[in-house]
Amino acid sequence: MTTLPDRRLLLVHAHPDDESIGTGSTMAHYAAAGAHVTLVTCTLGEEGEIHVPELAGLAAAEADQLGGYRIGELAAACAALGVTDHRFLGGAGRYRDSGMMGLATNDHPRAFWRADLDEAAGLLLEVIREVRPQVMVTYDPNGFYGHPDHIQAHRVAMRAHELALAEGIAPAKVYWTAMPRSVLEAGMNAFTESADNPFAGIGSADELPFGTPDPEIAARIDATDQHAAKEAAMRAHATQIPANSWLYAIAGNFGAEFMGVEYFTLAAGAKGPGSGPYGWEDDLFAGLATDGPDRSPVAAAGVR
């Protein structure tokens, strides 16, 4: 038994690399500030594309060893972010990457998309019991962009929150990852004339499966001092993110602003004090008392 830091953050992601792309700077920010950051990844990402030619044989249709390889990539990414508590839901390989929506891989017996909701949520509840996070982060009901595993991660996280509420141990706040419509439109405009335009062929932000109206955003985490850590974590996922990815091209143009600022909507709990025209929080723990009698011993957490 040990006493964990007063501030404890739990993130629930679908595949290795999702944590770095979507919340890497936030994770690095809180880890550097002394908070306990727990990452739960729901699958090994077995169905991912492979952008390293010499590793093509790891693919699901070949040796089907990509998932095992990505365990190492995730470990390297977490090290870059300063996160030491990273686990796979139910243990590595309990649930398999379901692939994109509508593919035959959705029906694999171990596909996360097919997982029994209460069973999977119960496994996440065990983590909540151990770590007692005050804040949990996951995806919105559409999984941010519609991937079945992202949608299922949302369902599992929210069901685990319900179960934790019944036990009186639920995180006080639950956030969903988000992209403000204004930021999305600014990015589209900035890349209009670029040869590497990731929005090519898209005429309006309304055509994209993500983009949240600015008034619905609850928190803007400025972790620009951690943008290098986020980029290093992304580069650790070399099989999934090519070295010449448009993500790095955007980073080259916008630097720390692109890599270091992340946004969230608030799905459960009370919004804390914020600033600006919409009162965006600058701290996911805003409004929470995290330095009082909350310092009860909880089980030590480590890599699982």
UniProtKB/TrEMBL annotation:
Its EC number is 3.5.1.103. One of its GO terms (biological process) is mycothiol biosynthetic process. It catalyses: 1D-myo-inositol 2-acetamido-2-deoxy-alpha-D-glucopyranoside + H2O = 1D-myo-inositol 2-amino-2-deoxy-alpha-D-glucopyranoside + acetate. Zn(2+) binds at residues 15, 18, 150. Transmembrane segments: none annotated. Keywords: Hydrolase, Metal-binding, Zinc. One of its GO terms (molecular function) is N-acetylglucosaminylinositol deacetylase activity. Its cofactor is Zn(2+). It holds the Pfam family PIG-L. Binds 1 zinc ion per subunit. Belongs to the MshB deacetylase family. Catalyzes the deacetylation of 1D-myo-inositol 2-acetamido-2-deoxy-alpha-D-glucopyranoside (GlcNAc-Ins) in the mycothiol biosynthesis pathway. This is 1D-myo-inositol 2-acetamido-2-deoxy-alpha-D-glucopyranoside deacetylase. It comes from Micromonospora auratinigra.
